[in-house]
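Record type: monomer structure entry
Structure origin: computed from sequence
Chain ID: A
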Amino acid sequence: MPSTSSSSRSALSVGRSLVMALVAVVLLVGGGYASWGEAQHVLLAKGRQHGEFAVTACGDATCAGSFDPDGPAGPESDMTIKDSVAARKGERFPVVVKPGTREVVRSDTAGSLHAWVPMGGALLLAGLVIAGGMRLGRFGLIVSALGAAQLLATFLLL
């Protein structure tokens, strides 16, 4: 018959693992939710207005420029993009217009990766929780490595 102390230690271990699994899931759901705001425009770009954005000026939070849509329509000025996507005056890159706004989102590889930066951070943190809190070292290392690779690729491409 097992002793009371070993069964309580076992229950404590299972409880700790369940709590850490919940923390990891919350981190991943939060990262996915934070990323989806921009990523949806890049991933679900069918039926949205595509074109090329030329940066003309940058402020504190956004850069302004002209948008040259694909097709016969002429260029539109007064479009904006978040300054955090490494846009510099004079640069041109492919974009998708956010429906109902005058804001564009980069649609190239760098823009796609940038949209998922919150998810990369969440993977990195969740990997630490999985490795340390759940004591699943290899799996935690793999999850963290995926997050770090995503963040590094974004940094290198932008």
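Annotation 1: The chain has four helices and five strands.
Annotation 2: The first strand starts at residue 50 and ends at 58.
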